[in-house]
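Exercise 7. Predict the structure of ATP-dependent DNA helicase from Maudiozyma barnettii.
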Amino acid sequence: EQEIYYKWTDELYFKLSKIFKLANFRNNQLKAINSTLSGKDVFVLMPTGGGKSLCYQLPAIIKNGKTHGTTIVVSPLVSLMQDQVDHLLALDIKATNLNSRLNAEQKNFVFQLLVNGELDLLYISPEMINASKKFQTVLQSLFRTHNLSRIIIDEAHCVSSWGHDFRPDYKQLNYFKENFCNIPIMALTATANTFVINDIIKNLKFNQNNMTLLRQSFNRDNLFYQILPKNSNTKIMVETIKKFILENFKNQTGIIYCHSKKSCEEVSEMLSSLGIKSAAYHAGMSANERIRVQKSWQNNIVQVICATVAFGMGIDKPDVRFVMHYTIPRSLESYYQETGRAGRDGRYSYCITFYSFKDVRKLQKMIQIDKSLKKENKTVHLNKLQQVMTFCENQFECRRNLILNYFDEKFDSNFCFQNCDNCVKKDLDLTETDASQIKEQDITETSLQIVDLVDSLGSDRVTVISCQEIFKGSKSAKIVQSGYTQLREHGLGKEWSKQDLERIFFHLITLKVLQEYSVMNKCGYGSSYVKLGPEARKLRNRKLTITMKFTITEKR
Ligand code: ADP
Ligand code: ZN
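Solution. The predicted structure, encoded as tokens:
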């Protein structure tokens, strides 16, 4: 690929090495930088850890571009903003941030810095645009004096309501193009399919005649993906993990993601007692404690970190050899981001997820009772969880292919080169007589029977599990005594395996055909029971067909 020589090229390479102390550009960085310095609008789709920050931090200190002055960076998380600013200040780049946590005096100080041209970069939270008229005035004056260099929208997927993390505040960001139409804009994200990208470009009012769209493959070819069944006994699990580490990654670094503080601590303590230096990391610890743990992990004093998802943002350790999910992640986005922390140095690394349906249920409940989530968001989260479940239960298709397809990327699984459990299995299958297959199956009739059953139970308080047992035809004492063996629907589901029934019920809850409700007992503990959901009527009126994917093993 021929590299074009621009008037800023020398300055660019000089500052890359002198200020950022980096030897070369990574994939797409140079293209993004040259485009924005030429005055184009740029969209950058780059995986987490790909190096998005450099795409706008370096141009922000280039004097020979089409525009110069201050770069405004919109970023959704105040804590990440501060990290970035600290990092820049350490490099002697003039940066600060502006958010609603500052008091009036502090804000005025920032405005003064801006007006005096003393800032290369200003990080703002999106609500500042509308929250502060004064800020708007300052921006206008920067614009008039040609000191507004470019606008950066970080985590740009937040702009689109089709993206996975829509923020209403991001909708107002069309403000920039509406007021400063010739100031270049750059939007960056690690997660957006074609549809979302177009939505973002439209919402931000990109100059469609003068723009660059940069998207690169999300394939991480040095990562091996594997899903293993999870045993409910923590001790057995930790033994397994220990064995795995000693056999494959003795003295090498890894991360184990757990879903709760308690589980982080439990796993970490057990691993330590088995002689593997590990530490817990979660939001329940003080900031100082967390920094200490992170540092000792980064310096290889601690080998394994057992963390909740709070860990990892902005962490860059290139030699992470394994990432394990002790509990499944809540979405495939998280799966990709968290596993993506392995092998940044390009060397072979492992991503292992321990899967059990029990954990799916646990997370499902956590989402259902989460007071911070709005109703419609709960559905989104439940659907995402179900996608993770389907991914984990898939024992047939290339994992790489599944992940990349999820991110809207076409991938030929021949290019997985046996780097996932299913591809390895496929190779073995050639010599075996069993072949597994994923089949989509219509389960509308079964769903109707289940709806009838739940209806027959009336106002009885029955848990999802009991309901499954009745449907399967259990004659346990409890069920016989309650008279449920007399129900017409008792045993209608006897052909289904227990596991498939669990999945079907879960699916029906996700689709809101069934619903769980909690009743508090005297001690304040809630038990949840099942009832018909708002979509049950649609199913009964035959306005809803339900399908599900199943793994079918057939003997040839
Ligand atoms: P992203 O925002 O895409 O997740 P970052 O901008 O935080 O990624 O960069 C991830 C890591 O990669 C950082 O530690 C950064 O210093 C490093 N990095 C970025 N660009 C380069 C480069 N050209 N060469 C080497 N390291 C780089
Ligand atoms: Zn594969």
